């Protein structure tokens, strides 16, 4: 029998093969499993396989894939933590396999119990700030913003190393998503143990949908205390800027009214400071779903054009938007921190704006939902063997100097892809 993957120290990867090659479908009559599954469980399992199959076709059978689906993410987490060690994958990590230790030979019983756990929906309650106290950061200083970084594979550790090497940041901010579902083990192995803590005066983490797939317990009970972060939404300011991190994951792709009221109070007291928002989910998108609930909840700020810039993750791309003609802010998607994202045809085929070294900025036109934008395109040398298929990883740094803000877009090595001083 193979060793449980958790004993190897390698990062586990749960592929479509991991979950499909159990021949569970042939066991649904209970012939090889102690439990005879009900039709609903079979349908949910089939649905998980369907979603992973679709993602695998776009990505690769041999890299870490994640889908925005609770059943799939929790099944992947449980197998990653308890499955047997399979073969090493070319881009890093070990492929997880079903093992007797995981299921006790009762595969359907195991799947049913995982789904039952998910169905309880006993999420950790959101943790609001204890009061309206506003933290501070230096008038001249830099912060790091990185998104969807919780893989500990591919570009993620390389970015962490270059952030650590540079150091002296006012704040390190993760805008959410630890794969597969932000469990205790995943949070430790793929986030806390490898976060470049020493590079920043403070670290902050936003909640993501994948953290909430396990109920958010590791996020709220491990990350927040470790970062001395009192709540899942927060605010810091200096003489010229007000930086607000939102929790858009506890109320999926939206914010609760208590949070909205808090934000309004904070903004009201901020005087002439320019407002920058950070969140896991996107308020709008050129390439993915829109955020109508987020737009509705913050309609007042949108109508008053009170937001200067907004940084988000969730979509695994690096996109720099022109100023939104209605909302009046500059949007930036930076969810390209650590998960292999297949290069989208819409980006690959778009007009070249300019090249920087081995990568290119492509120009995408405006749509009814989104302003025109620049999207980062190119190969990803940090996914060995499949470099051409996946877009670059990386992160942003924001350099504040009094009223001026310069945004720097970096590859994981810290090589600079863009320098923007438009806000
Ligand atoms: Fe996400």
Task: Please provide a written account of the structure.
Strand 18 (404-410) and strand 19 (416-420) form a beta hairpin. The N and C termini lie far apart (58 Å). The mean pLDDT is 92. A 10-stranded mixed β-sheet has the order 4-8-9-10-11-13-12-16-15-14. Helix 3 packs across helix 5. Helix content is 28%, strand content 24%. The protein has 2 domains: 4-117, no CATH class; 135-422, Purple Acid Phosphatase, chain A, domain 2. It is α/β, with parallel strands linked by helices. Fe (ii) ion binds at residues 177, 208-210, 280, 314.
What keyword list fits this structure?
single chain; 423 residues; Purple Acid Phosphatase, chain A, domain 2; 2 domains; 28% helix; 24% strand; globular; binds fe (ii) ion
């Amino acid at each position: 029998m193979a060793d449980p993957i958790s004993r190897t120290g390698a990062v586990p990867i749960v592929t479509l093969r991991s979950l499909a090659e159990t021949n569970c479908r042939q066991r649904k009559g209970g012939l090889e499993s102690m439990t005879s599954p009900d039709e609903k469980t079979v349908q949910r399992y089939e649905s998980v396989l369907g979603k992973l199959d679709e993602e695998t076709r776009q990505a690769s059978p041999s890299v870490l894939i994640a889908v925005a689906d609770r059943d799939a993410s929790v099944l992947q987490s449980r197998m990653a933590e308890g499955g047997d060690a399979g073969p090493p994958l070319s881009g890093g990590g070990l492929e997880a396999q079903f093992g007797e230790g995981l299921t006790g030979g009762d595969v359907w019983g195991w799947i049913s119990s995982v789904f039952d756990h998910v169905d309880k929906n006993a999420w950790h309650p959101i943790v609001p700030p204890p009061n309206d106290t506003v933290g501070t950061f230096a008038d001249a200083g830099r912060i790091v913003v990185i998104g969807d970084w919780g893989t500990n594979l591919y570009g993620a550790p390389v970015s962490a190393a270059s952030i650590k090497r540079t150091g002296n940041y006012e704040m390190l901010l993760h805008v959410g998503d630890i794969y597969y579902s932000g469990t205790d083990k995943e949070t430790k192995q793929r986030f806390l143990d490898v976060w470049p803590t020493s590079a920043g005066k403070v670290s902050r983490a936003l909640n993501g949908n994948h953290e909430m797939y396990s109920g958010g317990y590791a996020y709220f009970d491990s990350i927040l205390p470790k970062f001395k972060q009192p709540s899942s939404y927060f605010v810091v300011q200096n003489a010229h800027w007000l930086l607000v991190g939102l929790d858009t994951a506890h109320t999926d792709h939206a914010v609760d009214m208590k949070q909205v009221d808090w934000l309004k109070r904070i903004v009201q007291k901020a005087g002439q400071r320019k407002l920058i928002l950070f969140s896991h989910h996107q308020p709008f998108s050129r390439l993915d779903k829109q955020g109508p609930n987020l737009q509705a909840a913050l309609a007042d700020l949108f109508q008053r054009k009170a937001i200067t810039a907004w940084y988000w993750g969730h979509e695994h791309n690096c996109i720099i938007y022109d100023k939104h003609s209605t909302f009046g802010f500059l949007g930036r998607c930076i969810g390209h921190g650590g998960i292999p994202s297949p290069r989208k045809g819409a980006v690959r085929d778009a007009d070249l704006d300019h090249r920087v070294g081995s990568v290119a900025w492509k120009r995408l036109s405006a749509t009814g939902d989104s302003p025109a934008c620049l999207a980062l395109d190119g190969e990803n040398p940090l996914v060995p063997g499949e470099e051409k298929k996946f877009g670059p990883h990386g992160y942003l740094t924001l350099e504040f100097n009094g009223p001026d803000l310069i945004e720097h877009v970096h590859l994981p090595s810290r090589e600079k892809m863009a320098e923007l001083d438009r806000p």
